Amino acid sequence: MDFCKIIAVGIIQAITEFLPISSSGHLTIFQHFVSFKDGFFIDVFYNTATLVSVLFFFRSHLKDFLNKLPFLLISTLPLVVLTLLFPSSIKSIFSHTSLLSLSFLITSIFLFATKFSAPKNNHITFSKALTIGLVQAIAILPGVSRSAMTITTALLLGLSAQNAFIYSFYLYIPVSLGALVLSLTDFASPYPLNLSHFISFVICLAIGIFSLKIVNLSIKNKNFWKFSIYTLAVSIFTLLVL
After folding, report:
1. What angle, rounded to 10 degrees, do the helices at 23-34 and 227-241 form?
2. What distance in Å separates the CA atoms of residue 33 and residue 196, rounded to the nearest whole number?
3. How would you class 121 by CB atoms within 10 Å of its CB: exposed for 0-12, middle for 13-18, buried for 19 or more?
4. How far is the C-alpha of 18 from the C-alpha of 169, rounded, in Å?
């Protein structure tokens, strides 16, 4: 994979991981058009960069994260069960484009639903945590955005904009760590990492922090639903082109 492709993957990962438009969906599209064969490894590699972005962004919130940890573990449970039951299926699904249009449409519907949400500043509960976790599990499909699903569900359950944003990206931490643990065999295998990868890694990290700020601002200003316009356009594009 040449330098331009490496940089492109890092930028795509950084922009689409936190914006509610599905990083896995965009990487699948990218793979389709440029014959990109290392999608799973690269997705996990740059996922590490975005994980560092989240840790940096919430670096002063450690106590709050620990307080929410029991709820976060409940939210992570459905995805863990799904991953353990169907490990090979989950890896292979990232190479298919047949469901992309439907997946992006699902993301659009969830995003648009936030236009009608009425947050009540309610706090997270175990039942809400489980509901968010069940919805998050759907985001295993490329084209279904994890952040869109979790933030929308949190808002519809009555959490405030700020609480929904924070909980969604706190939840990203155990999910991302889990993905790294499950992919240790891939990292143990020989892979030609070079300077281009690490330059892209740093770019991914920086853009990730910026993307978090955009998402936070869009939720506060009640503009989160507008991302549905973009994901609907991508849904139509994938239906007609792929």
Report:
1. 30
2. 21
3. exposed
4. 8
Its sign, for the CA torsion 202, 188, 17, 65, is: negative
- Nearest-Å Rg of the Cα atoms of the chain is 17
Spatial distance between the Cα atoms of 208 and 10, rounded to a whole number of angstroms: 10
Q: What are phi and psi of 237, to 5 degrees?
A: -60, -50
> Residue 54 pLDDT more than 90?
yes
In order of 65, 72, 222, the CA distances from 191 in angstroms are 34, 33, 43
Q: What is the mean pLDDT of residues 60-74?
A: 95
What value does the mean pLDDT take over residues 6-18?
A: 86
pTM of the predicted protein model? 0.91
| Cβ pair 52, 169 in contact under 8 A | no
Dihedral Cα 232, 97, 147, 110, nearest 10 deg = 40
Look up residue 171 and give its amino acid. L
Q: Which residue has the tokens 């450690």?
A: 62
Among the residue ranges 16-20, 42-46, 109-113, 221-225, the one predicted with the least confidence is 42-46
| CA 96, chain centre distance (Å) | 18
Let me know how long the chain is. Answer: 242
